[in-house]
Amino acid sequence: xxxxxxxxxxxxxxxxxxxxxxxxxxxxxxxxxxxxxxxxxxxxxxxxxxxxxxxxxxxxxxxxxxxxxxxxxxxxxxxxxxxxxxxxxxxxxxxxxxxxxxxxxxxxxxxxxxxxxxxxxxxxxxxxxxxxxxxxxxxxxxxxxxxxxxxxxxxxxxxxxxxxxxxxxxxxxxxxxxxxxxxxxxxxxxxxxxxxxxxxxxxxxxxxxxxxxxxxxxxxxxxxxxxxxxxxxxxxxxxxxxxxxxxxxxxxxxxxxxxxxxxxxxxxxxxxxxxxxxxxxxxxxxxxxxxxxxxxxxxxxxxxxxxxxxxxxxxxxxxxxxxxxxxxxxxxxxxxxxxxxxxxxxxxxxxxxxxxxxxxxxxxxxxxxxxxxxxxxxxxxxxxxxxxxxxxxxxxxxxxxxxxxxxxxxxxxxxxxxxxxxxxxxxxxxxxxxxxxxxxxxxxxxxxxxxxxxxxxxxxxxxxxxxxxxxxxxxxxxxxxxxxxxxxxxxxxxxxxxxxxxxxxxxxxxxxxxxxxxxxxxxxxxxxxxxxxxxxxxxxxxxxxxxxxxxxxxxxxxxxxxxxxxxxxxxxxxxxxxxxxxxxxxxxxxxxxxxxxxxxxxxxxxxxxxxxxxxxxxxxxxxxxxxxxxxxxxxxxxxxxxxxxxxxxxxxxxxxxxxxxxxxxxxxxxxxxxxxxxxxxxxxxxxxxx
Length: 690
Description:
Blueprint: E1 2-3, H1 16-24, H2 38-74, E2 76-79, H3 82-85, E3 90-96, E4 105-106, E5 109-110, H4 111-124, E6 131-135, H5 149-156, H6 168-181, E7 187-194, E8 212-218, E9 227-234, E10 244-253, E11 259-268, E12 271-280, E13 285-293, E14 298-305, E15 316-323, E16 327-333, H7 340-347, E17 353-359, E18 373-377, H8 384-395, E19 399-403, H9 410-419, E20 424-429, E21 433-438, E22 460-461, E23 464-468, E24 475-481, E25 486-493, E26 496-501, H10 518-527, E27 537-538, E28 545-548, E29 560-564, E30 569-578, E31 581-584, E32 594-600, E33 603-611, H11 615-618, H12 624-634, E34 639-641, H13 649-658, E35 659-661, H14 663-689
InterPro entries: Aerotolerance_reg_N, Class_I_gatase-like, Double_TM_dom, Ig-like_fold
Keywords: Membrane, Transmembrane, Transmembrane helix
Pfam families: BatA (PF07584)
């Protein structure tokens, strides 16, 4: 047994007080001789013995009460992990949570500053020979260095807020591995100082090892109202010039108060494009829409913002995208087939479409990546190489429109359709059919017709293909025949789309090209063919970007790219490249939300938008009581909680370091002995008579 305050043991001298009182109150009897008192001697001697026993028991109780009280103030304890305590070498790992949630005010100031203060107190509670590890959410390489006490205290001053929040199990794993590398013959402890965000607190995943003890130090912030922009997205995947854009914005109210008429602003290239007033109830989520037009081609930088205090990092949401000046479209047909002339006449001199035609025997499949849309017109057979290239083209975001021909080998088409999980062509049908139903709600027909016209003249066909679609296919019927068979269907595959026309593009078999539906359907397929764009990325430690480029944008064979946010420039290594796909690793270069221009040899490739994670804004924290409830279900004796906000933190720290507390037991004993003294004093006669 050891003592936290051994100096209080001097108070054991107070035991002399009850002893002194005992002797001062001891009664000396005077002998008086009588002639015949022999019969009283026996009674007298018996009473004296009982009285002496009573006085001795009271004295003993008083001595034990004083001693127990002295032990209470001396804070006795039994050391834990005795084997480790006997080791001279000590290794201590400290994690300071520096995520955005640690910017909140606590009862003793900003949580991050309080965390750094606690880390300093931990370091000072150990001897000068102790060696330390100090890490935060940044996980910088220098965090693996072993530090002295003075070096750790100095390094604490360089810890600043970070947009990154790591899972605690990952932090614990990192510290555990590093401590184990330093050798087995050392006392090892881990301290985690945090507000313990619920989404990052995964205590069940901690490593259980009795050679390393873990101490959780929770810090609790004051309740703060917060209105945040959770996310933004576009209703349609692509962007084109002079087209109306609809941006959806999800906003969350993380407070118990309502907000009325809060202005939500949209800026595109530093110009306010839309404003929408928001009213939202407590703890609610609302979605609003902001509408505007792209007036020009090129890179567009967008910001959605609102005003809310004191938490401001989630008041802005950045996004970026590129509006292409033209979509490149390719039509593939049989040699000497004039079918493509219908499409050529449609797209000729169109400012939004760059149209090309090619015979099937002259195609170069390696060039498919430079187009956004491909039309297959009445091809008789699809080679295996062509099928594989078309499948890859669609899965990477291209649009493919297919018209099977009268003389087509259906097996080769079905091989393509199977690869894209589309409908299978069963057989040709020479029955006279009429297109009857049009899906006017589809984006291809958006604002094409003023209303759904019942008297709209639709095409007729005398040659079509019956299809069979499996239940796993993502099919959307665009136009149906009067026999309820699909005439035109859309299938999603990977990042792209397949448009399956179940009739040939042949004027002898259909009047499709002569009807009003031909132009909007064929034209909008080409116009709405867009390469997929990620409008924003979330800042995190393990961020890896997969970027797609067309032929004109493709960077040269450089090993690094340049990121520039207007204030700083970063060289980003290229991990690998495949065709027009580029994989880059920004590492921890991205620490601020905003726009970053990506360059290759001074040529700007695109602008990337980065946002802080909203997890910290949405998540709740866990206090000591909640953590204790979790620990009770885990049965992990190597984890202990120390109240980080208590004024006696240092005393708790010493107790946790040294072992099991005994002061409560001695307090109970002091009360017990005091009660025994009272009982003996008041009920001794009753006890003796029995």
